[in-house]
Fold:
Amino acid sequence: MCGIVGYIGKDNGIDLVLEGLKELEYRGYDSSGIAGLGKSQDPFVFKEVGRINNLENKLKKQEISSNLVIGHTRWATHGKPSKNNSHPHYNNSKNIFVVHNGIIENYLDIKKELIQKGYTFYSETDTEVIPNLIDYYFKETKDFKKAIKMALNDLRGTYALLISSSLLDNRLFLARLGSPLVAGFAKDYIIIASDQSVILKHTKKVTYLEDFDLAEVSNNKIKIENLKTLKTFDPKIEILESNLTEDSLNGFPDYMLKEIFDIPETIRLASRGRIDSKKRLVKLGGLDSVISQLEHIERIIIVACGTSYYAGMFGEYLIEELADIPVEVVLASEFKYKKEPISRSTCVIAVSQSGETADTIAALNKVKDFGVLKLGIVNVIGSTISRITDAGVYCHAGTEKAVASTKAFVSQIVILVLISLRLKNVSSKQTKEILKELENLPAKIEELLAKKEDIKKISQKYSKYKDFLFIGRGYDYPTALEGALKLKEVSYIHAEGYAAGEMKHGPIAMIDSNFPTVALIGDDSLYEKTLSNVEEIKARKGPVLVITSRVDKKIKDLVDDLFYIPRSSNYTESILTAVFLQLFAYYISKDLGLNVDRPRNLAKSVTVE
Ligand code: M6R
Structure:
C-alpha cells in the first residue's frame, strides 16, 4: 500500500527520501513522487508513474536540493495510476504540499464545496482536497497550524499526513488518524515514515504518533498536540527493537523463494528461548503480565485477514484440541461490523504479520472498551497492533518482503502451537511430543526444500490449468484454503479451498478432466475419508495431485501425481504441506513468467479498509 517518507534537517534530503521510498517498494505501489523547498523556499514537486527508478532518473537531471523533503509511493485507491493522481498533492497556488496514506471518505462533499468557492482540481484523488482545504482556512485565519486543525476537523476517514509549505519557515506538520506514522531522531535530522523499516538505518530513537496527534517538526525538535485530548506534549522517545534480519536476496532470484527457504530458521527463531527443553514447558515472556487473566478465559475470538486468518483457523483447531477452550475465528473485516455478545471472560487474539492491517486494527478498536483481554501475534516489532494490545507474542520471522506471506504464516502457526500449550501449561506426554516435533520440524522442512526440483517439475505440469480445487480435513483444511490463496495471489489462477467432506455438497459438480484437485491427506484417523473423496474425483476424470506422508500403494495407483512429505505429528505435519503448497504456487507463477514478489493489484499490508 502507499508509503510515506519525510526528511527535515541541515543537508539535502532528496537522496535519503528516495532511498526510504525504495525500502517501501515491497509493500506495492504504482507511482511515486517527492516535493521539497529549494533555494529561497522555491517549492518543487516531481512525480512519476511506475518504478521509483523513473523518479530517480528524473531527479538526476534537476539541479535541486532541499533540507525539507516529503515523498510518497502510491497504491491507487481513487483514480488510475497517473502523474496527476500521484502524491505529493498541492493546492491551487502550489504552495502547500501533502502526502497521504489512508482514505478520506467525505472527499466528494468537500470537493464540491471547494469548487463552489472557486477551487479547481487536477486529480481524481481524495487527497487533493486536503491542501486546498488548508489553503482555504489559512486565507481565513492567517494561522497555518490553525488552518490544518480546521481542515482535519472536516475530514472523515483515515490518514497519515505530512504537510509542508513554502508559507512556513522550515517547519513540517505530521498528522495521524488510523494510519501509522513514526518519526526517528537521527543526529542532525528527523526522518519520518509510515514504516519503521525505513528509519532503522538512520536511528533507533523513535516516536510513534497516536491517533489525533498533530506534530510540528522544526530544528530537530517535535512538539505534539493531541486534537482529541487537546494536550500538548514532548514526544515519548522509544528505542526501536529490531527483528530485521538480513533482508537481501542472498543469491535467491526472488524474495518469495528466499523467504520459503528462511522457514527452518524462522521456526527456530519463533521457538528460541520459549521452550524449556528439560522440563518440556513453554515460556512466553510476552504473556507473563496477563497470565492470571488468561487462566480465567472461557472463550477466545481470533481476528485476522488473509493468510493470517488461515493461521488463525489453525489456532482454532489447536487451542480447542490442546487447551480445551472454545475458539471462534472471525475475519476482521466482518468482526468490526458484527453485533455479538462478548463477555469479560473473552480473549481477543489479533494475528497479523505487519501489525498494520486496517481491518484487524479496527476489530481490536471495536472491543477497546469491553474490558476483554486483547492479545497480538505480530511479526513487525513496534507496529500498531503490538502497541494497542494488552500483551502478545512476536513471531520473530524477520522482514517478509514478498507480498505473498510464507514464512510469517509458518511462524504464526508455531506461535499458536506454543500459546495452546501455554494455556494448558501441563507437562503432559502430549506436550513433550509436540515440543519434540517442533524441534525436529526445521530439519524436516530442510529435507522437503532439498526436493525443490521435484516440486518444480510437478508444478510445471500443472501450470497449464485454469482452475484448481484444494481439499483437506482437520489441520489440512486451513492449509488447503491457504494453498488456494497462495496460488491465486501469485499466479492469478482460479483456485478454491474446501473441506474435503464438503465435496459431495456442491464442489464435485465442477470436476472434469480440466479441473485438477490438490488433495492434502494427513497420515491420521481421517486418512481413509479423504482418500474416498479422491476416489470420487478420479471416478469423474479429475486430475489429482496428492500430498501425504503415508506410503500407500493404493493411492499411488489411483492418482496422477503424488508427493511425499516427511512424517510429523498431527499438529505439525500440515506445516510441511503448507511449505509444499507455497513452492507449488511459486513455481507455477515462475512458469507463467509472472512477477512473483509483486503480484498485480496487491499490496504487502492493507492499511486502508
Ligand atoms: O499483515 P497481515 O498479516 O495482517 O496481513 C493480512 C493479509 O493482508 C495478508 O495475509 C495477505 O492475505 C497476504 N497477501 C497473504 O499472502
About this structure: The chain has three domains: 3-239, 266-448, 451-596. The longest helix spans residues 429-449. The chain has a mean pLDDT of 93.
